[in-house]
Automatic annotation (TrEMBL):
InterPro entries: HTH_MarR-typ, MarR/SlyA-like, WH-like_DNA-bd_sf, WH_DNA-bd_sf. One of its GO terms (biological process) is response to stress. It comes from Allosphingosinicella deserti. GO terms for molecular function: DNA-binding transcription factor activity. This is MarR family transcriptional regulator. Residues 33-132 form the HTH marR-type domain. It holds the Pfam family MarR_2. PANTHER family: HTH-TYPE TRANSCRIPTIONAL REPRESSOR YETL, TRANSCRIPTIONAL REGULATOR, MARR FAMILY.
Length: 218
């Protein structure tokens, strides 16, 4: 039987989207505020956070890709960070390329700006652990769809990793397997930015996704 609310409600996907958009608005305004206090723009703050995750250094093209901006925009961002002595350019392996690294001062600001989303973490903690795990799984699906459509840069997620073995242990509380560390794991352990991630070949990635996305690995 169709519930009366089915006919009088906006489609569920639209209400979920509206909720995400509200969170996005708050994040943007907090990012501006946090960035302003640290003396950088939100894009510069994001660049600092990304460089902090790459202590060995990062090429400009890689930074532009991860920020989801054009090479000229990334170049402007980096120039501003270098002018503020928060980042430095060092010669790369071949003499024509440059590697970007944080300075000591950049590390300090990156740590400070990393606190931006803390308020959201507090809100997420109001969900119980199973709700958090289900939410993480749903987020992985949304992020992957955005990635497939080219709306966001490729993320270093388990679901696109060559080491990911979804439902390798069916019926177990930790049904997936990471072949890199050779250990089982659950949805709550899914990573969105794993340093060990290696992109899987297309065929393996598609097969893993089909298996992962099926309800409870059916
Ligand atoms: S290596 Fe990292 S991204 Fe890949 S499956 Fe293991 S934990 Fe996930």
């Amino acid at each position: 039987m169709t519930a009366i609310f089915d006919s009088i409600s906006e489609p569920l996907s639209r209400r979920v989207t509206a909720g995400l958009a509200k969170i996005g608005l708050v994040l943007r305004s907090r990012a501006w505020k946090g960035a302003g206090l640290a003396g950088v723009t939100p894009t510069q703050g994001q660049a600092l956070a990304l460089l902090r995750e790459a202590p060995q250094g990062m090429k400009l093209a890689a930074l532009a890709h991860l920020l989801g901006v054009s090479a000229p925009t990334a170049s402007e961002t980096v120039s501003a960070l270098v002018a503020k002595q928060l980042a430095e350019k060092t010669p790369g392996s071949d003499r024509r390329s440059l590697t970007l690294k944080l300075t000591q001062q950049g590390e300090t600001i990156a740590l400070r700006t990393a606190d931006w989303p803390d308020f959201l973490g507090t809100a997420v903690e109001t969900l119980d652990p199973s709700e958090q795990a289900a939410f993480l799984r749903a987020l992985v699906k949304i992020i992957r769809a955005l990635q497939e459509n080219g709306d966001i840069p490729v993320q270093r997620m388990c679901v696109t990793c060559r080491h990911f073995r979804p439902y390798a242990h069916p019926g177990s509380p930790t049904p997936h397997h990471c072949a890199f560390v050779d250990a089982p794991f659950a949805d709550r352990h899914l990573r969105l930015n794993c340093p060990e991630q290696e992109p899987a070949p297309a065929e393996q990635r598609d097969a893993a996704w089909t298996r992962f996305a099926a309800p409870a690995g059916a």
